[in-house]
């Protein structure tokens, strides 16, 4: 990471310029910090989904426990659950790929809801899972402890003052996003967020074009991403 490139103070200044709000009387420093953190933590991983944020999310299934709730454990750390998943009877292993369904129709065509899946003939190692309504529904119903690893995108982190300590939000002027190249996109994305809330349609159109162009640029760089980078934090 190059010290001083796209630290928080530069991102904040760029955001003010894009919004044409150089004065704290127009946009306070605290409000700007909150807006940047909101975009960085919650919007960026959905709009970009970069390879740097790809990781695994493990679910532990218990005997006869066919449903798993994502709300308590997933969203504070992860943003998107992917369509690749593996099941194993050993923690952290990825042995057998299972089918991931995001539409109930396809899932229930394969696993009709009229059956009792806790019946002894219907239990076993799950081979399919429905992702719906913040819940995971497994079929077959587990007959033992199993570990399912899903490909996911985690939420990005901040390097505190350009060092090695990580936090989930910006706080200091020299805090840096884990990938410095995201700095201008963070500024544009935050500006778009602020202008949308203000209803400034003319400015939004200008920022939207620049924002999409920046995402395209970063996506192209990501595909060719081969130079050494500091290892991403392990969650």
Description:
With 235 residues, the protein is α+β, with helices and mostly antiparallel strands. The chain folds into two domains: 8-47 and 157-223, no CATH class; 52-154, no CATH class. The chain is built from five helices and ten strands, in the order ααββββαββββββαα. It has helices at residues 8-19, 29-48, 104-110, 183-198, 201-223, and strands at 54-61, 67-69, 78-88, 96-101, 128-132, 135-139, 146-154, 158-159, 166-167, 176-177. The protein has a seven-stranded mixed beta sheet. A three-stranded antiparallel beta sheet has the order 9-8-10, with no helix packed on it. Strand 4, helix 3 (104-110) and strand 5 (128-132) form a beta-alpha-beta unit. Helix 1 runs parallel beside helix 4, helix 2 crosses helix 4 and helix 4 (183-198) runs antiparallel to helix 5. The longest helix has 23 residues, at 201-223. The radius of gyration is 22 Å and the shape is elongated. The two termini are 21 Å apart. The mean pLDDT is 91.
Low-confidence stretches: none
Number of helices, counting only DSSP H or I runs of 4 residues or more: 5
Beta content:
15-25%
Topology pattern, helix = H, strand = E: HHEEEEHEEEEEEHH
Largest sheet: 7 strands, mixed
SS elements, strand count: 10
What's this, in brief?
This protein has 235 residues and is of the alpha+beta class. The chain contains five helices and ten strands, in the order ααββββαββββββαα.
Defining traits:
single chain, 235 residues, alpha+beta, 2 domains, 7-stranded mixed sheet
